[in-house]
Amino acid sequence: MKSQIALLTLAVCANFYASHGAWSSVKPEQVQNNSLQYHLDQLTFANKGSGDYEVDSHESTLKSNSVASPSLGKVGPVVDDETEAKDDFRNAIGVDYGVFSSGFWMPIQSTDGYKDWTYNDCNAFTFCSPEGLFGGLVNIAYTRRLVAANRNSLDLDVAAGVGWQSPVINSNSQGVDYVESYRGGENQFFGLFTVMPTYRLRVFEWLSVGAGGGVSYAVNGVPADMGGSLNFASKIEIGLRPFENKTIETTFSFNHRCAVFGLLNESGRLTGSQWYSLGFRKWF
After folding, report:
1. What is the fold, at CATH topology level, of the domain defined by 87-283?
2. CA–CA distance from 23 to each of 30, 47, 108 (Å)?
3. What residues does each domain of the chain span?
4. Per-residue confidence (pLDDT) for residue 31, from 0 to 100
5. DSSP category for residue 136
């Protein structure tokens, strides 16, 4: 019995010596197959089921897919974010065509400077033109985006155009000229230059609204308004982007120029003109 215990003790020590090199000056480079760690590793691998391997394989596939495709995980932005990031255009060139309206500009009109305000439901905002539309105007416009924050922007619109009208101008007994008819006279051409800061709000990806005010200079004056060359200018605009190419925008604008209650003309008369324009704009 004692001899058997001694032999078993000797075998354990021999195995320990072989696997760990307790009395060897050189450390073995790899674990031998008969080591205790090797048998533990084999036992762990044997107990690991095939289901665990399938789970690990599936997780590895998901990780690889998330790196390859921006639609999985948080590797890249979604499509909408990419479109929003690319929609950072600062310049635009546009062209529009307009026709003049013979109606009043505002629903509330003054008959004597800043006094005697009256309401008139036939005005340019209600598309009411007593003598119809007349004349025409072709504009080429450049837009520079100055400031942009979220859906808000402040732009500078610079436009140059050529217009034409054929009003019939007569004078009363006091020698004051007035428009007898907006059509039927000699056709007259004039140049129109406008510089206008404009605020625009992007309501939806396909819709924007804007409003602006600035100065307008008409070479030789606008024939039908007789208000001088230098006038105040304003507009209200609606922009649509119905095409897949979002850099192309269609515009509808309501434009007005006036002498600011007679302050910008020599006669002090309430003069002005308004027109509707339809055009296209290309952002870049």
Report:
1. Porin (2.40.160)
2. 17, 34, 110
3. 2-68, 87-283
4. 45
5. E
Q: Which residue has the tokens 């709000």?
A: 201
Contact 215, 197 (CB under 8 A): no
Q: How far apart are CA 242 and CA 244, in angstroms?
A: 7
Return the pLDDT at 120. Answer: 78
Q: Where are the beta strands (DSSP E) in 205-271?
A: 207-219, 230-240, 248-258
CA–CA dist 56, 52 (Å, integer): 6
Structure-block tokens of residue 53: 């391997």
Residues 204, 206, 211, 213, CA torsion sign: positive
Q: Tell me which DSSP letter residue 47 carries.
A: H
- The residue that leads in pLDDT, 102 or 49, is 102
Is the four-CA dihedral 207, 208, 209, 213 of positive or negative sign?
Answer: negative
The amino acid that residue 158 corresponds to is V
Write the CA distances from 9 to 2, 239, 244, integer angstroms: 11, 94, 85
Across the chain, which distance is largest between two alpha carbons, in Å?
A: 149
Mean per-residue pLDDT for 252-273?
78
* pLDDT tens-digit readout, 178-199: 888 999 999 999 999 999 999 9
Tokens in use for 159?
């436009």
* Tokens of residue 108, six digits: 């509330």
